[in-house]
């Protein structure tokens, strides 16, 4: 090998080494964004599951209150029939008092603003929890797509080092941008794209 060929070979190796450093930096940036999107995605997934459980519990409580209210209303209606058949004034007064108590209880089961446990308040809370669940689920889907873009970008950038095909690194860079856009959409505009 001549001195000229050796110099040319060294320059080529130095150029390849410089390109590999750039690719390694791209991979490091992709890995950083991947870690961020994975963390955000896991948080959104956990929030979605939590809010789903909360909504289910609130709807179950709503259903239990509705059943109790129906039972009490039925008892009050039955009491009215008993009241009509009663001949004794003391008995009529006792039955009327019981009917009034049942009616108040049924009204309380329907609306209890002081405790927030009436069926109206429970339905409102459950709908709010469902909305928060849907919000978290939408965010989760965006973060998952961002993570996929970052992972594919890492694979393509790694393949660039092995194959020397710089075009793969450019595609990896474009996937980085796509992942950043999906992460931003997940954070600030999760319902802009309907992904689920």
UniProtKB/TrEMBL annotation:
Annotated Basic and acidic residues bias: 122-134
At the top level of its lineage, which domain of life is listed? Answer: Bacteria
* UniProtKB keywords: Membrane, Transmembrane, Transmembrane helix
Region of interest (Disordered), residue spans: 106-134
What sections of the protein cross the membrane? 23-41, 168-189
Signal peptide span per the entry?
none
Which InterPro entries does this UniProt record tie to the protein?
A: DUF4337 (IPR025570)
Q: What protein name applies here?
A: DUF4337 domain-containing protein
